[in-house]
From TrEMBL:
The lineage of its organism: Bacteria, Pseudomonadati, Bacteroidota, Flavobacteriia, Flavobacteriales. One of its GO terms (biological process) is proteolysis. It comes from the Bacteria. Residues 238-457 form the Tail specific protease domain. GO terms for molecular function: serine-type peptidase activity. This is Tail specific protease domain-containing protein. It comes from Polaribacter butkevichii. InterPro entries: ClpP/crotonase-like_dom_sf (IPR029045), Tail-specific_protease (IPR005151). Gene3D superfamilies: 2-enoyl-CoA Hydratase, Chain A, domain 1.
Amino acid sequence: MTLSFKISLGQNFGDFPKIEKQKLLNDLEILYQGLDKFHSGMYWYTPKDSVDIAFKNVKSKISEDMNVLQFHKLIAPLVALSREDHTDIYLPKKIIEKRNLESTFIPLTFVFLGTKLYCVKNGSNYQELIIEGKEIESINGEKPIDIVEKIGNLFASDGYIKPVKYSDLEGFNFSKYYFYYYGNITDVTIKFQEFENPIIIKPLKIENINKNLRSRNTNKKGDKNKELLEFKILNKTTAYLGLHSFSNSDIKKETKEKSLSKFLENSFKSILVNKITNLIIDVSENGGGTEGNEGIVYSYLGDNYQKYKKVRAKTQKAVLDNGIDKPITLKTFGFLERTFVNKKMTDGSLERKQWIGYGLMAYKKEPKNKFSGKTYVIISPITYSGGSEFSNMVYSNDKGTFVGQETGGGYLGNTSGYSKELILPNSKIEIDIPALQFVMNVEQKLPFGSGVVPDHKVIQTFDQYINNVNAPLEYILEKIKNEK
């Protein structure tokens, strides 16, 4: 413990104001109570005794005054023990503003394709370096997978799903979390696979990085104005359904149909009229949205059934009190939902009733023009929340063949809805704590803590990534062609 303690305090995070040791300990107690009393899925994947030990270890490391970034490095892994991607931690706005002005970062953007790390854009002062699209073997002597093992503990992800840890570090996120773990560093030594000798570059402030990136028109990943909901007849037998969000507000604002139900009604009518036998449903960029939309899509593929074993809130009200600061109260439901939609259990938790409100069933209404052909589902680590719930239903009920990468959302469900913002009183660090645990009624076909695992794993090459090529779609079309 002594060694790791010295390491955690040894980073140079810059000239940020110190917070008194006792105030940090007071914040730690509030954090513990918030996760313990209010987070309905806190102990789904991490046993309570393990969480308690982790908090005790962190408490022992707070032996002197620290700045907020030092404290953040200690407590972010505690939040990540929730193993729930809806549980987020944020630095105070003033600290972010100061960080953006004064701190230095690796001046590159990155992408992991699988577990291979590539440089996407060069924002360093060395414009002559031809490093974009090059695979990286090490940074400051560490392999990328070893770095992810460290910085990946600073943010939560569902269960034990590993691909999402790599996916979440796309763009500038790798540099940002590298800073959160290692602090300001003097030099960055990068070993590229293609080059015999390492390259040494200087970390830069964000302003300088952005200036360099704006002045260079290199590797500009073309973001086409993709429709939020896409339907295409690809050939005589195959149709593509791109469902990139389940958010009703976004769908209303950005689509001509204004509703997912209307879009699906039109799409599946066209599928029937055109005698389509192969349907490709793409939820690889679907991070969820409005509850129930995943079920509406599933209604075109399968029979209705109870999709949730239960939807549970640990408590209606949690009072967080460290005995020093003003107590904080977190509440779950309003009066009507608490009274009519949920029932109180003997342990004080609340569980959703079967038929009222959203209920527990897969969907509310049987649609016309259900599809009975071959279904393929494209998934990725970005497939999350409602997007992953749809995948879970299809996978559990054997209604499709999955292509891509493991989903970022857990197969057993998630803890999301009714998240409350907990602002720690002294450090002002904010934690979003979700209140509802959605336990899905799935067949136990996958390891505990995994997402939906594809039947056919497909990872983009760098050229495909930079040119926005849908590699899983190409794989499916070739597969269909070869099966004729």
